[in-house]
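Q: I have 200 residues here and want to know how they pack in 3D. Can you give me a structure?
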Amino acid sequence: MNSNSEKISIFNQLITSTRVVLTTMIVCSGLYTLLILGIGQMVVPHTANGSLIFDECGKIIGSELIAQTFTSPKYFWSRPSSTDYNASASGGSNWSPTNNKIRERAEKIIGKMNNCKVTNDKMQLIPADLVTSSGSGIDPHITLQAAKYQIERVAEARGLSVGSVQAILETNAGKISGYLFSEPIVNVLIVNRELDKLRK
């Protein structure tokens, strides 16, 4: 009798455990996910769907949340990326501040921005976020100061006045958090899209 009772008890425990696991999976992996998805679609559908940006033909050209590379002089350039702007490999380089690779990368970027004329004075003038990558490696924003540093190059490449390009920056400048980050920032993809809408 004792042996049969133990077998029944173990069997009941297995059934109970299975029910708990299945219920937890349904609630946490199914119902909760659907609930959050539904709330996101109702409250913030643009963000919930990846903050995608489309061109005039309805083709996806990028996301407001993920940086991409711009190399043409007529565009504002994004922050450097330790992951080559690969969102599936988001992360920093984990290099220490004393690593020579950080300086080498910065000097290469500075040389590109200053027609390959790297000087100590120029290194001090270029905003830090133009020569250093963010923790994620795909930060879509740069500071307004970093964008203004590039104004003359962009305006000259497009045949526009500096004032018209600066107006676009000022219009699209914002702050992530006024308390923690008071410095204005701009979304690189958005301001480049606004530039493309202007007549050359």
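Q: Anything worth noting?
A: The CA atoms of residues 107 and 120 lie 10 Å apart. Residues 116-120 have pLDDT under 50 and may be disordered.
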